[in-house]
Amino acid sequence: MFLDRIVNQTRIDLAQRKIDLPLEQIKRQALEQPSPRDVLEAFDPRDRVHLIAEVKRASPSKGLLAPDLDPVATAKIYEQSGASVISVLTEPHFFLGSPEYLTAIKNAVSVPVLRKDFIIDEYQVYEARAWGADMILLICAILDDQQLRDLLNVATSLRMRALVEVHSQDEAQRAIAAGAVIIGVNSRNLTTFEMNPYLIRDIRRILPEDRVIVAESGIHSEADVRRLARYDVQAMLVGESLVVSKNIPDHIQMLLRHANHTTQVKICGLSEPEHIDTAIEAGADMLGFIFHKPSHRYIQPERVLEVLAASQSYTQPRQGQVLPDLVGVFVNEDADTINAIADQIGLHYIQLHGDETPEFCQQINRPVIKALSLRQLEDLERLASYRDITWRLLIDTPTPDWGGTGRTGDWELARLAAQQSKILLAGGLTAENVATAIDQVQPWGLDVSSGVETERRKDSQKIAAFIAQVRQSEKGQQEAPERQEESSLR
Ligand SMILES: O=C(O)c1ccccc1NCC(=O)[C@H](O)[C@H](O)COP(=O)(O)O
């Protein structure tokens, strides 16, 4: 097994290094170093996705990636292109890394530097500091609770930070209990090398809000990073797709732009496999199902499972295709029913579209999207009571029918709401008006139902046209950087 092999090799190498340079000497060297760079500052502001760019020549899962890579030149390009932290492999056998790379890179850049290795002994933490590292990697899978705590303590005593890496909810609980401040969720299983791009979604909701969350591995495309914006991570750790890129600055700009300046799209009121296929192919980020019985879009929970199973794009996604998240929409339903349906279908988010109070939202065991409508300026104050306890706010047109009416609301009030919170804009959106809506409101996301229907039935052409128009408008927005800065919440 790979992990056992690498840990065994690490022990052998370590025993030799301890003979060559005893612990007391490496400790002294560590303590002689100038103070480490501030890693937490590098992840500020928290509502942006920052980049940890990795220097690696090879990996056990992919073999030789970039044998001729110049570590220092590459790290400088990373920094100049917007990376907030540089990760440097120091493991020599499986990743072709080296301590010399770390020290040389530390001297060449001004951002913090992470020692990426298989750390199992305090000696390696002192070593990391002696070589210039500001941060170390601690992998839960190779450490027991006591080791994790001890190594975190050594790092803290040296004023270094640790990226504590987890691969499961269980490990995430262990990292939290050990007091990890920066938690990395690695999509790559270190035993089988299998990728689970959805791991971050499943683990994110049990991680406390005050931690810095890093998504690790398998981050290549626009769609990959648009998902990260949905899971509220503070950083992405990217190696392979950078070192193999023909144009690293362009690739970094693409990753940062799509992680921080895209508009999420929710297609709501779905009930047929063909429309789910179209929404997925067109790049929808969320699929909505209406569980409000009076609505003509009502769908029984069991039927949702059937239509998803009948959707080819959902059950057999193309290589590299990212599946949207599932949202259940409820109106004044009781919490037990909502939680039971969420578990039955595997919903990722719950949208509450009625008069639900902030206290009620807290009874839901999924992240909540609370729909609110704005009639006048004073209504903006109501948003504050929901903001901290819900995942997102959805601003919809005020109507007696709750939602899905095809009527547009007051976009000026929505614009003010978008300046305070990450909002989804809903109500009367169509392929024709959505560019103006994005431009005027600058919402975090969009929710559409009637505008992608013909005669009260979803229309594949309209779904595709809507999403294409959103992506087109985004390009215009991204090319006007001064607008991006105005809307830092997106
Ligand atoms: O769509 C419905 O029938 C519905 C019924 C009751 C509560 C909410 C409902 N829809 C919620 C949505 O998320 C809609 O997508 C949103 O209101 C926008 O609708 P539309 O104006 O039709 O685009």
From TrEMBL:
<dbReference type="InterPro" id="IPR001468">
    <property type="entry name" value="Indole-3-GlycerolPSynthase_CS"/>
</dbReference>
<keyword id="KW-0028">Amino-acid biosynthesis</keyword>
<keyword id="KW-0511">Multifunctional enzyme</keyword>
<keyword id="KW-0057">Aromatic amino acid biosynthesis</keyword>
<keyword id="KW-0210">Decarboxylase</keyword>
<comment type="pathway">
    <text>Amino-acid biosynthesis; L-tryptophan biosynthesis; L-tryptophan from chorismate: step 3/5.</text>
</comment>
<feature type="domain" description="N-(5'phosphoribosyl) anthranilate isomerase (PRAI)">
    <location>
        <begin position="265"/>
        <end position="468"/>
    </location>
</feature>
<keyword id="KW-0456">Lyase</keyword>
<comment type="similarity">
    <text>Belongs to the TrpF family.</text>
</comment>
<keyword id="KW-0822">Tryptophan biosynthesis</keyword>
<dbReference type="GO" id="GO:0016853">
    <property type="term" value="F:isomerase activity"/>
</dbReference>
<comment type="function">
    <text>Bifunctional enzyme that catalyzes two sequential steps of tryptophan biosynthetic pathway. The first reaction is catalyzed by the isomerase, coded by the TrpF domain; the second reaction is catalyzed by the synthase, coded by the TrpC domain.</text>
</comment>
<feature type="region of interest" description="Disordered">
    <location>
        <begin position="470"/>
        <end position="490"/>
    </location>
</feature>
<keyword id="KW-0413">Isomerase</keyword>
<comment type="pathway">
    <text>Amino-acid biosynthesis; L-tryptophan biosynthesis; L-tryptophan from chorismate: step 4/5.</text>
</comment>
<dbReference type="InterPro" id="IPR013785">
    <property type="entry name" value="Aldolase_TIM"/>
</dbReference>
<comment type="similarity">
    <text>Belongs to the TrpC family.</text>
</comment>
<dbReference type="InterPro" id="IPR001240">
    <property type="entry name" value="PRAI_dom"/>
</dbReference>
<dbReference type="InterPro" id="IPR011060">
    <property type="entry name" value="RibuloseP-bd_barrel"/>
</dbReference>
<dbReference type="Pfam" id="PF00218">
    <property type="entry name" value="IGPS"/>
</dbReference>
<dbReference type="Pfam" id="PF00697">
    <property type="entry name" value="PRAI"/>
</dbReference>
<feature type="compositionally biased region" description="Basic and acidic residues">
    <location>
        <begin position="472"/>
        <end position="490"/>
    </location>
</feature>
<feature type="domain" description="Indole-3-glycerol phosphate synthase">
    <location>
        <begin position="3"/>
        <end position="253"/>
    </location>
</feature>
<protein>
    <recommendedName>
        <fullName>Multifunctional fusion protein</fullName>
        <ecNumber>4.1.1.48</ecNumber>
        <ecNumber>5.3.1.24</ecNumber>
    </recommendedName>
</protein>
<dbReference type="InterPro" id="IPR045186">
    <property type="entry name" value="Indole-3-glycerol_P_synth"/>
</dbReference>
<dbReference type="InterPro" id="IPR013798">
    <property type="entry name" value="Indole-3-glycerol_P_synth_dom"/>
</dbReference>
